[in-house]
Amino acid sequence: MAKMNMIAALNSALEHQLERDPNVVIFGEDVGYFGGVFRVTAGLQEKYGPHRVFDSPLAEGGIAAIAMGMGINGLRPVAEIQFADYIFPAYDQIVNEIAKLRHRSGGEFSTPVTFRTPAGGGIKGGHHHSQSPEAQFTHTPGLKVVYCSNPRNAKGLLTSAIECNDPVIFFEPKRCYRGPFYGDPHNVPTWNSHPDGEVPEEYYSIPLEQADVVIEGQACTVIAWGAMVHVCQKAIEDSGVDCELIDLQTLVPWDRDAVVNSVKKTGRCVIVHEAPKTSGFGAEMSASIQERCFYHLEAPIERVTGWDTPFPHTTEWDYLPSPERIAEAIRRTQEE
Amino acid sequence: MTERSTVTTTPYTIGVAPFRPGDEPSFGGSFKEQPEDLGRPDPASCTTEDTVAHAKGLIRVLTDDGEAKGEWDPNLDGETLIQGLEYMMRLRIFDDRMMKMQRTGKLSFYMRSYGEEAIAIAQTMALKEQDWLFPSYRQPGAQFVRGRDMVSMICHCIGNTEDNVRGRQMPVHYTWREGRFISISSPVGTQFSQAVGVAMASAYKGDDEACITWLGDGTSAQGDYHYALNFASTFKPPVILNVVNNQWAISTHVSLATGGRTFAERGLAYDIPSLRVDGNDFLALYSVTQWARERASAGLGPTHIEVYTYRAGAHSSSDDPSAYRPGNEFECWPGGDPVERLRDHLMSIGVWDEKKDKALAEKIDAEVMSAYKAACEFGDLASGPYPPASTIFTEVYETVPWHVQEQREELGK
Q1: What is the CATH number of the domain that holds B112?
Q2: CB contact, 8 Å: B316 with chain A?
Q3: Is the dihedral of CA B178, B182, B183, B186 positive or negative?
Q4: What is the pLDDT of residues A163-210, one digit of tens each?
Q5: Of A113, A90, A227, nearest to A172 (Cα)?
Q6: Which of A147, A176, B287, B397 is the most exposed place for a label (fewest CB within 10 A)?
Q7: What is the pLDDT of residues A61-76, one digit of tens each?
Q8: Which CATH superfamily is domain A2-199 in?
Q9: Are the Cβ atoms of B218 and A57 closer than 8 angstroms?
Q10: CB spacing of B186 vs A33 below 8 angstroms
Q11: What is the pTM of this model?
């Protein structure tokens, strides 16, 4: 075990993959010599050479397209999109091409691409360095969608994402790169003292499709992913309610058994995400939960989300779900 | 001049920056291209073919000794030149102060135009006041030319109650309709093809307007750059398309942005007259822009310009260039420092001296500081006041729909 922040943990996962599989290549904007604007690929070009870890031209559409081509022809590309907000020039390639290749070719072709991309708010990034566009990809059949939340699961999930033969969109909550985030911008701890900052140095993986039950409880199921997992932890403490907290980890395909069993037990559910409410992944979760748990529900399913507005700059703390808003929702589920 | 100095070629070609930290940079001394190398074709009859040499070469006016020479000399009067110097000095002093504010926690983020001050300023001065500006984040200097108040600019950078975009955008992402300075967006290059649309609308309405836009060498890899060239070539609207080749896109060297040839030459293939200009030469920049504007006025449509320069500072306050390039690269840049070059020229023609220069710098510095203080009256970064949280919900649509209104009430602020 070693103390790692999320950046070091992701770097470690990438290094194991480069070491184990000569077909793994890593590229994107600033990822080569410089090691990425968030330093996730630091040192890898030096160690594995510029043909395996390289800087690309600044064109996300091009990055996605060449990743697809490489994947078709036997490589296992891991492409970085510098911010999730900048994934949209690649959207056509990802949605119409990469996601559908296996299906459209009758299974003759597929491309095992992983797109890593920092997402989410809390760094004063305004509209274009803060968004959390997971629902735009969960709505695309053919893609797996993963959202890590801490160093331990970041490493294990990225390993599985790269090894997965389907294309994976891998979201990294940039707010949590250097520490968990409990919703208070003035008090941001590091991963140093957090149990999930203890990361095995050796190779390991965490299966996709598996949620993590962070806290066990009886009175209410709280479901979150990314940075919101930690904010929910704080909200649960503040609420005084005996909640079960589920870190979904993989959004498509999501861990139905973990969620359904928990909601059947508690009869109450709060879903939390940073992205806007309308057509957010919380809507899918909520609909699926009521389909499967209707006769066990004791209260309406609550959603606490970002607002249906562009992500703000100065007022971002009024946009992101706060511990207060989440705690209120938890309490509402307890009312008779 | 080829852009690619070094590559590795196994198993495929990877562009490599010529100098990394620890290397001794050298760009071979001064430019070999001289002001009298290239003639100035008649803008009203010039074809793409007439600009082949201009796209491969480098248009200069100021010699290394600060003299103005050649057919591209715009023959500006002393007053206009001094005005240009003042804008450039203002931008540099403003940037330095704001970067200090960022470093001391008084701004959340900042981006300087260091080394590239001449570009937006000379080019905007060469245009007409009704022309549209569609900038990237490295052309805020255009606002000084159009007379924007520094207090208003700083209020935006702080994101306080007087920020005209209500704290919604990161600092330096200015919007200023009055100055026809269209809103800056973080996704790079998007403005380039949008600018072609702005120019088509001017042509449609029959208005005597042009639109100027800029993007970087790195950004020229985006589809938007190529869409813009193709649409501009097809419809021939009055648009001036600038690739600011400043050598660095964060850590990505220009050798990663293109496999070779100059950026200007790309325009030739789209049948757009294309020029390559020394981006640290105020006079040359003014002149090529004036030439492009004359083409637009004559109904001849687009001009494509490569502005050859060097990004002297970090990409932004979040960047540390010492990790990927030698610290003294800018000192070796053959184009020198754009502010010093214009200053030297003004001194050599006898309209400027050290005393005037020092007095102007002190005056601007005092104005910047007093503008900062005045801006803080409307809220500072540490303690606000900021725009009210209700501004999250307004101007998402023209009117607030029920579901957004409901969320606004839920927030209760």
Answers
A1: 3.40.50.970
A2: no
A3: negative
A4: 999 999 999 999 999 999 999 988 889 999 999 999 999 999 999 999
A5: A227
A6: B397
A7: 999 999 999 999 999 9
A8: Thiamin diphosphate (ThDP)-binding fold, Pyr/PP domains (3.40.50.970)
A9: yes
A10: no
A11: 0.90
